[in-house]
Amino acid sequence: MTVLPVRVTPLLRHGLTSRARLHTHPTHPLCARKQLSKAADVSRELEFDATRLESARKCLMEFNSGAGGVEAMHFTGDLMRLYEKYSHRRDWLWRPMEVDSQPKGGVRSAIIAVEGDQCYTTLRFEAGVHRVQRCPATDPSRVHTSTASIVVMPEMEDVSVVIR
Fold first, then answer.
1. Is 108 a residue whose pLDDT tops 70?
2. What's the pLDDT band for 109 if we cut at 50, 70, 90?
3. Strand order in 93-101's β-sheet?
4. Residue 79 has pLDDT above 70, yes or no
């Protein structure tokens, strides 16, 4: 067993004169070992949570139109329909919770609940900003760049929090 050297002088300056207080100070080797074992326990719990996250059967998808005005809203609507068709192909349940459609067509923002086998694992990499360049129907000589952002969040079935 190796014993790490402890500088006692700074501990004495802080009023830690008794041996019991010395063993509970963070710079003492025994206390450091306890902290390392606690950190290992926490990392094991996080690994368990990561595997639970991988198998999440429910997730929320949030669609937001970005730069590009009405064209961006059309692009967001197209993306939403694309993922809706994809989820029906995979036999996932597609449930719109909130959709902000515009009178000129397109979608400004939407929140969709998706449920099915491995839906979060499959859709998590679709999150981010999507960009399209297209020629608008009103003026085919120009090119418009439109963006839409997608957020994919897992919805855990049971959540348990332990604070120690």
1. yes
2. very high
3. 93-101, 107-115, 58-65, 144-154, 128-134
4. yes
Strands 93-101 and 144-154: unpaired
Task: Name the amino acid, one letter, at 109.
Answer: S
Q: CA-to-CA distance for 67 and 72, rounded, in angstroms? A: 6
Q: Which residues pair with 145 in a beta bridge?
A: 133
Domain 55-154 class? alpha beta
Is residue 60 within 8 Å of 112, Cβ to Cβ?
yes
- The token pair at 160 is 């348990």
Question: Where are the chain's structural domains?
Answer: 8-53, 55-154
Helix (H, G, I), strand (E, B) or coil at 101: strand
